[in-house]
Amino acid sequence: MSDERVRVALLGCGTVGSEVTRVLLDEADELAARVGAPVELAGIAVRRPDKHPELPQELLTNDAGALVESDVDIVVELIGGIEPVRGWLLTALRKGRSVVTANKALLSEHSAELAEAADLSGADLYYEASVAGAIPLLRPLRESLAGDRITRVMGIVNGTTNYILSAMDATGAGYAETLDEASRLGYAEADPTADVDGYDAASKAAILASLAFHTRVTASDVHREGIAGITASDIAAARLLNRTVKLLAICERVTADDGTESVSARVHPVMIPRSHQLAGVNGAFNAVYVEADAAGELMFYGQGAGGAPTASAVLGDLVAAARNRVAGGRGPRESAHAALPVRPMGQTPTRYHISLDVADRAGVLAQVAQAFATHDVSIAAVRQRDRNSTASLVIVTHSAPDAALRATVDEIGKLDVVREVVSVMRVEGEDS
Amino acid sequence: MSDERVRVALLGCGTVGSEVTRVLLDEADELAARVGAPVELAGIAVRRPDKHPELPQELLTNDAGALVESDVDIVVELIGGIEPVRGWLLTALRKGRSVVTANKALLSEHSAELAEAADLSGADLYYEASVAGAIPLLRPLRESLAGDRITRVMGIVNGTTNYILSAMDATGAGYAETLDEASRLGYAEADPTADVDGYDAASKAAILASLAFHTRVTASDVHREGIAGITASDIAAARLLNRTVKLLAICERVTADDGTESVSARVHPVMIPRSHQLAGVNGAFNAVYVEADAAGELMFYGQGAGGAPTASAVLGDLVAAARNRVAGGRGPRESAHAALPVRPMGQTPTRYHISLDVADRAGVLAQVAQAFATHDVSIAAVRQRDRNSTASLVIVTHSAPDAALRATVDEIGKLDVVREVVSVMRVEGEDS
Fold first, then answer.
1. What confidence tier does A6 reach under pLDDT thresholds 50, 70, 90?
2. Are B126 and B331 in contact (CB under 8 A)?
3. Interval A163-169 mean pLDDT
4. At which positions is NADP(+) bound (chains A, B) (predicted)?
5. Listed residue (B317, B325, B304, B311) closest to B21, CA to CA
6. Percent over 70 (pLDDT), chain B
7. Which residue in B95, B204, B246, B414 is the catalytic one?
8. Which residues of A touch B323 (CB under 8 A)?
């Protein structure tokens, strides 16, 4: 055991911060044994120290900037948001302090400059808690699969939307009333925009794609569609096909015919077969599939949010950073050496499910099929069903550029024989 | 990019070694970019160099000992077995060379001296490939959950036995004929002892328990029962309860009434509910559940064996070790600071399923129940069913010390009213 203490500054002390503080203060011996040296909580920056009578008063400060500049080894940031946190963390990294953060918004926009600052000073920059809470996912992507070639990362990374979609699937209820219920039960924030419109998942997709493909991908590079447009009809249409609807973050390595590679990162609702392992991930759980050339198919499953799970991820990073301090080195850094271009959504290959109410007369399918042919989209399966004077037509396509699929849907919507486009949704996974 | 080369010695060049060699030679640029310095294959030790015309002849040697002593930074060991590999790796670690190995037999017996040698010289000792092939599992246990308290690691870690049990469940066939079929299809070795008798899983359980509980657990500490005794009746009995049979490695932190902690590590067949996520892991796949105080329930799923998946894990370790060389540090070491005692199987709390053929007359249940009461074992559920002149009695117990459960079964087997003990098996997971 080294005598040298590892000094930790904590920025922010909400639910996660309180748990981190508890472990640092109450489980100091255990932590020291794991790190190989005592870990000392040097200070806690909170906006209003007088609001935290439960914390040791001598540790509290409302001057996060000064705490970061003081003599500490590791800065744990749990405030969130971009400014002023970005400046504090850049200062910390430039001064050689390692940074542990759960800040997905910051990471998904500014990871390049943060990583560069860490590289220059030899500090660690860890952010396991920023994606999928307690599930150890970023470390495996960054380290365990470092000798492999990842081709795809696809998962459920937002618990609120997964709770809502699971409930809609279970009850058949509509989106608005399910969201209300989720808010009432505490599964959705008072302002659920960041979750239901996919911003949260898009930030996580950017972080995942960056690590998986050694390429800087920011949240603005991620194509984003939320779940507010999902109707009970969509869920019912999925159910008829023995599928269910999930909001997925999908990051893919796309290889063009000429061999050039690019990265696609997107967040949108997807119909997946009920036999798919992601279909069984219900409620507020997260799960992420990873496909790699050599490793094959991997899945990581666990709690994606909550104070204790997030604190577990933060503490794991903190122990790693502290051990590196004691050992005198630093952990494996991330690498953006591949610098692949990001493929626009329109050029990303996807597959569509389209459910239509059409006139019940001969020749309808021919007209609809012609619209597909015009846009060079190949049809994988068609089901027709009579419904009084209208008929229902369900089509699943083969893979085609997303723009061609959208253009096809637009054209179909204008056909006289089509009474209503009931549901349009992308699909993933093989039909069983 | 550093100019300094990282020199790698490879011991053994079978399926996994060939894939590692291919990546080192053919994907040198990509590897260098990930490591931050060129990675050079300095030599390959094989028993018979003349049997490897496909490899660069100038790299081959049959003197592994000399290769280990030469000027290399990292030794990748893919020979397997304990001697003479143990001596070579100790030499390498003592000289400060980092070691990457997939050798579960060695690790499960001699990790203490290997880890000590690594600690003394500041070298890395990585062995992700030794458990669950390509699934990144050891690194998360060692690093991501380093700030959490793991209470349980339970999983399917042997593909051969999982293939056999999956097939028995699907076909209703017996053990012997299913094993023959598995051998014919290449899912079982010509000598399947290490797999079917649970030695392979026990080695992995020792490695998992050591990392999870910061305690040295060796394979000989692991209670081990294989699958050779599983009958079609056992599988059928499980099916009647909507359960299936899996060979599980179970590592638990057990807290006694007085608060003292110990570790239980065991490998044996278990009935689990079909609704349990491990029940859906079929064929040669592996999956491991981890429960931790803060992180909650996690699952890791993927391919547990095979050349490419194992090579992926080896290369991940190799990249991590090489990056540490370039950065001048070393990765987080494992820690055995907790040094918890290993709890004997007899004192480990388990639950039993017992299926009996009994005489069809009044008072049978009373006699059987008395046997349970004598050993202070509490019954959770009983089902009775008539079957001509015999009746079937199925009992699931509450948790009790394994020795008490075994004594109960012994006593029941001697009762006049019991015609046959049809199936006895431990159970895990809640009944749905």
1. very high
2. yes
3. 96
4. 11-18
5. B311
6. 97
7. B204
8. 146, 332-333
